[in-house]
Design a protein that fits this description.
Largest sheet: 5 strands, parallel
CATH superfamily of the largest domain: Aspartate/ornithine carbamoyltransferase
Strand content: 15-25%
CATH topology of the largest domain: Rossmann fold
Low-confidence stretches: none
Radius of gyration: 19 Å
Number of strands: 11
Order of helices and strands: EHEHEHEHEHEHEHEEHEHHE
Shape: globular
Mean pLDDT: 89
CATH architecture of the largest domain: 3-Layer(aba) Sandwich
Structural class: alpha/beta
Number of helices: 10
Strand order of the largest sheet: 8-7-6-9-10
Distance between the termini: 6 Å
CATH class of the largest domain: Alpha Beta
Length: 309
């Protein structure tokens, strides 16, 4: 499979994923190995939603590859406020850059935008849709801590609106992984995602739970997500589930001592600060892994224009 753009993890085979992770491991071990590979190249950052880790790690990655970035800045200071369409915006930025990173609040925006440009476009999150580069750094973290095969993973929290969850669930079907989804009923994994997991991939093993207690002892990885207030159409709906799913020292008394806890961040109150100093916590290392993984992606897409199996 060959790709000019990275829009969703549905595009990626196991071989594609492993190629990116292997390259990331090389760059993680020696970031200077690619220091001048993309000198003179520019990456356009188009973030229509707030971002800290994704935006800064892409900027760091590009600069470590010897290139630089141009940033659209805030939506309020751009021509979007004048009514410019996303299609026109990306076509203009294509003329300035060698690649584009796009975050947008509307699901499907990255797919649409990719149809208007020839330079590589990477989806940095499209509403409640997908976040494939986050998934690749998640997979890199899992591979480094527990391994991706013979894996039992629990994914807990906002499964309805969580784009990181949707992307990770699809990607994990490429591996020998049992996935357990833990959420209140109102935030269950969307039925179309469940359907895709069963129909779109061979051998997807998934189960859904309302409570974590019964499944926690068997987990190798617990992936915790924030209840995303900004995604809820109704504030009352948010208030009904806010703070309902939390992990603290007492929760982990029944967990395996080798359990790895991950979180795409930012967190609010889902993971107690007391967990930060334990061997379970991997979420800050997970965030750091965004740089080598995004370096690997940019290196592969800008060098050859594709991820190549």
């Amino acid at each position: 499979m060959r790709h000019d753009h990275l829009i969703t993890t549905k595009q990626l085979s196991r071989a594609d994923i492993e190629a990116v992770l292997d390259r990331a491991a090389e760059l993680d071990a020696d970031p200077s190995a690619a220091a001048d590979r993309h000198a003179g190249r520019l990456l356009g950052l188009l973030f229509f939603e707030p971002s800290t880790r994704t935006k800064m790690s892409f900027e760091t990655a590009m600069k470590r590859l010897g290139g630089d970035v141009v940033d659209m800045g805030s939506v309020e200071s751009s021509s979007v406020t004048k009514g410019e369409t996303l299609a026109d915006t990306v076509r203009v930025i294509e003329g300035y850059t060698d690649g584009i990173v796009l975050r947008h609040p509307k699901q499907g925006a990255a797919t649409m935008a990719s149809e208007f440009v020839d330079v590589p476009l990477l989806n940095a999150g499209d509403g409640a849709g997908h976040h494939p580069t986050q998934t690749l750094l998640d997979l890199y973290t899992i591979r480094e801590t527990t391994g991706l095969d013979d894996l039992t993973i629990g994914i807990m929290g906002d499964l309805k609106y969580g784009r990181t969850v949707h992307s990770l669930a699809h990607a994990l079907t490429n591996f020998d992984a049992s996935q357990h989804f833990i959420s209140p009923e109102s935030l269950n994994l969307p039925r179309e995602v469940v359907y895709d997991l069963h129909q779109g991939q061979t051998g997807a093993r998934i189960r859904e739970h309302e409570h974590i207690d019964d499944i926690l002892p068997s987990l190798d990885v617990l992936y915790v997500t924030r209840i995303q207030r900004e995604r809820f159409p109704d504030e009352n709906e948010y208030q009904q589930v806010a703070g309902e799913y939390q992990i603290d020292a007492e929760t982990l008394e029944v967990a395996d001592e080798e359990l790895t806890i991950m979180h795409p961040l930012p967190r609010v109150d889902e993971i107690a600060p007391e967990i930060d100093e334990t061997d379970h916590a991997a979420y800050f290392e997970q965030a750091h892994n965004g740089v080598p993984v995004r370096m690997a992606l940019l290196d592969m897409l800008l060098e050859g224009g594709e991820i190549d199996e």
